[in-house]
Amino acid sequence: MRITVDVTMTYRFTAPNTVFLVIEAAHTEGQQIVSESLNLGDATVTRISGDSGVGERIWAQVPGQEMVLNYAATVDITRPNTTLSGLAADEFHQLPAEVVPYLRPSRYCQSDKFVAFVEKRFEDLEGGAKIDAMRNWIEEELSYVPGSSVADTTVLETFAGRQGVCRDYAHLMCTLARAASIPARAVAAYGPDVTPPDFHAVAQVWLAGEWHLVDATGMCAPDGLAVIAVGRDAYDIAFMEAHAPAELITQQVSVSRV
Predict the structure, then answer these.
(1) What are the tens digits of pLDDT across the range 31-66?
(2) Cis link prior to 245 (omega < 30° from 0)?
(3) CATH 2.60.120.10 assigned to 2-78+239-257
(4) Residue 35: phi, psi to the nearest 5?
(5) 3-state class of 140 per DSSP?
(6) Does domain 92-236 have CATH number 3.10.620.30?
């Protein structure tokens, strides 16, 4: 599938600011960047590698009091929609070093608090079949309610309130998988079926020696997602962090099939 991505953002600052950006589609397995452009005006740009070597992150030093950003890309999604139910979970001794950190609890995904729930609710399932059941349970149990959570909402609050947005669905998916000793990480992505259009968050689980995308909202399949970045949870994949306070003026994300 080929998709196009267009992002426009304008933020105002009280003084010159340094901004950390995670917005470009990654040059990574399962997708090919056909074309892309990034315009940050007179900002000075420094690039660093993303977590686990997926994508790049940008330090933008903005000399004035306003940042105007335009990003456009055309991406070919080449990854298939793999059926997870027949995939086995790897034994601990088979896990590569870069995968192991995604077994552990993180700031927003307190997976150690969910071990008993997972053992009871999904006890008769293994590997990919367990992940499928978890994904279905989340989609059925949670209501997608824009504005129902904030940046500091943890998976404990999401589980109790049974509502959230994509980041909350991704956090719960990662949490349940980790509680079942299956590595899972949060993924920032673009998808043409995201409603309302915005930066999207999904999960990625490690099964049979590979990472597999899982969208618990049910909005997007793996062959329709352009991965931007990965991390332990939303803290690691936020599209923007500012050294000083930032005021949103305009922001629009548009993703379309070609």
Answers:
(1) 999 999 999 999 999 999 999 999 999 999 999 999
(2) no
(3) no
(4) -155, 155
(5) helix
(6) yes
